[in-house]
Write a structure and sequence with these properties.
The chain is an all-alpha fold. It has one domain. It contains 13 helices and no strands. It starts with 14 loop residues before the first helix and ends in a 16-residue tail after the last helix. The relative contact order is 0.23.
Length: 312
Amino acid sequence: MSDDDIPSEASWLPPRIALSAAFLSFIFGANAVAVKISLLGMGPFANAGFRFSMAALVLLIWATVQQKELRVKRADWYHLVILGFGFFIQLSLFYLGLRQTTASHGTIVVNILPFIVLILAHFLIPGERIQVRKVVGMVLGFSGIVLLFFDKVSLSQQMIRGDLIILAAIMIWGINVIYIKRIFSRFRPIQITLYPMMVSAPLFWMSGWITGEKMIDELSSEVMIALCYQIFVTGSFGMVAWNSLVKQYGATTLHAFVFIMPISGVLLGIMLLNEPVTANLIGSVVLVVSGLLLVNSPQRNREKIDHSEVTV
């Protein structure tokens, strides 16, 4: 695949687009909090199955009404099936891990994804090289995760296990991102968002049935609101909006805003779930955010940013 197949990067964003990217980053950062709340009333697989079944249905109806192009070339379908299975594995691990740890921890661990992708891209994509600035950013980011694992004030064995499961999910997620990077130009944003959901949704339901988990415990108003947030905000329209911005402005330019995600996730976890505030947690946020800012900062010469950058 040539560089011409990859969306070009914008050296700056119009104020309206910048605000949209910042807002999307904020609401994506809050997703771990919504998942944690919904897990209070549903099992992990049922939660994910319901979320992505409904999100896929909403997107399908919306795309049909808007007359979006949904047809995919027969030769390209296998890409979407592979993405769907990867999506299922990464989200299953994420939900299982988040059930055992806090939303704050989950948010911080998830946000080392850009660092994982940089490392994978360095070895798997020809021409990808990690600059010194990005090495420093990755060291800061991973130091934040190490600091999180040494939080003696609030950390339990269960939380450590949950954090490690989420870390495994991020490894799978990183591989998925590299794969998406290579095939992105073949599809429209709605296609690469909708069809992996449709592939993964029945797999979540089947896994819940096979493992014998209790599908539904209590559907309180808080649980339903959290589910709706995941379905409509982050699971469907939010993803389409982000992918559309990536298609138009490039992933690198938009990644200047991803530092907002860990901040919003941790703050909302503390405010809405009364999660503990510790020195290690604050230090982890500072280190991960600093790493994200270094990794995603634009080049000094303000020229068009290299196409080899990655997207979350």
